[in-house]
Write a structure and sequence with these properties.
By secondary structure, this protein is of the alpha+beta class. The chain contains 15 helices and 8 strands. A 5-stranded mixed sheet has the order 2-4-5-7-6, covered by helices on one side. It has a 3-stranded antiparallel sheet with strand order 1-3-8. The N terminus and C terminus are likely disordered.
């Protein structure tokens, strides 16, 4: 028997990451879908809102030029009354005025009624029919047999005038412009062709060319108006999107503020609930570690008590840092300002951290300028800044490394503090990360002594509250330097002695000049009546 065919191994390919479309691509896709939907529901191939706006502009143009059209009709009727019988000319004039009156009344009604897609289509058809009647009336008067005596030049001029006026008035509705001008141009061209002369053939060609030119001009005007409306619609849509985005941003900001307030309230309420049992743990663990009430039966219990105490101290410090950071971010951290010595605070912090640095074989150098005046600042905040910077330097400096503490004057008259180490350094792209809350660099993650990532952010925020600057410079495998500066406004310089003489204790009395020059040996106030 043959062995069954082995089942082919199916290897599942990793799915390609699907990138989220950007806001601009989503906006463009939505606009294309909206335009396609509008074209399907429109009778003219444009948006329904644009159809209504085009008809509105057409009606407004007709109403604004109504008196000009009436004047043209009356002048043409009077002029043709000179070559033909007055009654037909008067009848033609009356008919044209009736059509013009109907068109004007329709435009006014359209402007007063609310716009809707069905009403827009009905009004569009009505305007096209009225313009067609308007063009047929002009055609009737221009090809009247009685006007054969009129020269072709005058007829051509009148035709061009009628076509130009009708094209400009109906430019926002190209099909209406074509309905108003095509009968006139075609009728005049046929009239010229029927005469059979070469000159009239040329005039017929010119009539058709003029019709094409004015139709093209009306189409260009319609395209320009449509582009203007489209730009305005896009601007309105953009303004709407901006307003919507602003509303969303305001709502998100309100939610963030509410969340921040809730966080601050939670931390303020929980600070007591966390510290009370923690203080008890620290106290009892210290009692057990110190063996105050007697030695432990098992020596390992003493080590366990020390571990509990150290862990509690670490947890307490972490809680204090989180609470300090929350107060700073909420703007509720108040500075207890007083006259402090920057050099003295740095020296005290060096003394506190000296034992820890010596256990790692790290040497700390001090470079302080002497006779520096005091700063007007919060001593606890500055001490916390120095301790955070110094502890970070000790943590990330290898055994046998060096740390330099510097304090002195800045070029602008302020004071500065610098902490520089010979540690592993921080990559340049990770500097914003370590300055953010709970941010840790790659070296911190790899290090055995990981922290919460709050030391540098708290130090930077405390310096910002003092109006100073916090600068972090670092290079890989060379070291890190943090420079903190205080503005000159916080330096309490010693006041210079007064150079002017002090005023007299009491005003001098008016005495004679010779008495003024004579030295006085008597006291200011003498007892008795002796002279």
């Amino acid at each position: 028997m043959s062995n069954p065919a082995e089942k082919p191994e199916v290897v599942e390919l990793p799915a390609e990451p699907v990138s989220a479309p950007s806001a601009s691509s989503r906006r463009a896709a939505a606009q294309r879908v909206r335009e396609a939907r509008d074209k399907l529901t429109s009778t003219s191939g444009t948006r329904p809102a644009f159809d209504a706006e085009m008809l509105r502009q057409y009606a407004q143009t007709r109403l604004s030029a109504s008196y000009v059209v009436m004047l043209l009709v009356v002048a043409t009727g009077v002029l043709f009354g000179l070559w033909m019988q007055p009654i037909p000319a008067a009848a033609w004039t009356a008919g044209m005025l009736c059509i013009h009156s109907a068109m004007t009344r329709s435009c006014r009604r359209f402007l007063t009624e609310p716009a809707s897609p069905a009403a827009t289509r009905a009004w569009r058809t009505r305007f096209v029919v009225l313009d067609l009647l308007y063009g047929l009336c002009w055609m009737a008067i221009l090809i009247h047999p009685v006007l054969d005596m009129v020269t072709e030049t005058l007829m051509m001029f009148l035709m061009l005038l009628v076509i130009a006026v009708s094209s400009m008035l109906a430019a926002n509705l190209p099909i209406a412009a074509l309905a108003a001008t095509a009968p006139v141009a075609v009728a005049m061209a046929l009239s010229f062709v029927m005469t059979g002369s070469l000159d009239n053939y040329i005039l017929a060609a010119l009539a058709l060319a003029a019709e094409g030119y004015f139709v093209l001009l009306a189409h260009r005007l319609h395209s320009s108006t449509f582009a203007t409306l489209e730009a305005r619609a896009e601007k309105d849509a953009l303004i709407g999107e901006l307003e919507q985005a602003k509303a969303i941003s305001d709502e998100a900001r309100h939610r963030a503020e509410s969340a921040n307030v809730a966080k601050s309230r939670f931390l303020a309420q929980m600070s007591h609930e966390l510290r009370t049992p923690l203080n008890a743990i620290l106290g009892f663990s210290e009692v057990m570690k110190s063996e105050i009430f007697g030695a432990h039966a098992v020596p390992v219990y003493k080590e366990y008590s020390a571990d509990i105490h150290n862990s509690g101290v670490h947890l307490l410090n972490l809680i204090n840092e989180i609470l300090d950071l929350s107060r700073i971010e909420a703007g509720r951290y108040e500075l207890n300002e007083e006259a402090v010595s920057l050099v003295g605070i740095v020296a005290d912090c060096h003394h506190l951290m000296k034992l820890r640095a010596s256990s790692r074989g790290i040497t700390i150098h001090e470079v302080f300028e002497q006779a520096m005046p005091r700063l007007w600042a919060d001593e606890r905040a500055i001490r916390q800044v120095v301790l955070n910077l110094l502890s970070n330097s000790i943590k990330f400096t290898p055994q046998g490394g060096e740390i330099w503490l510097k304090a002195g004057w800045t070029a602008s008259g302020g004071q500065y503090l610098s902490v520089r180490d010979s540690g592993s350094g921080i990559p340049e792209d990770e500097i914003p990360v370590v300055l953010a809350s709970f941010g840790q660099g790659s070296n911190s993650i790899k290090s055995a002594e990981q922290g919460a990532g709050l030391g540098l952010p708290i130090a930077k925020n405390l310096i910002d509250l003092h109006g100073g600057t916090f600068t972090l410079k670092s290079k890989l495998r060379i070291g890190t330097e943090v420079i903190v500066t205080f503005p000159p406004e916080r330096v309490m310089s010693a006041l210079a002695p007064l150079s002017d003489d002090s005023p007299p204790l009491q005003p001098e009395s008016s005495v004679l000049p010779e008495e003024k020059r004579r030295p006085r040996h008597k006291p200011i106030m003498s007892a008795g009546t002796g002279s």
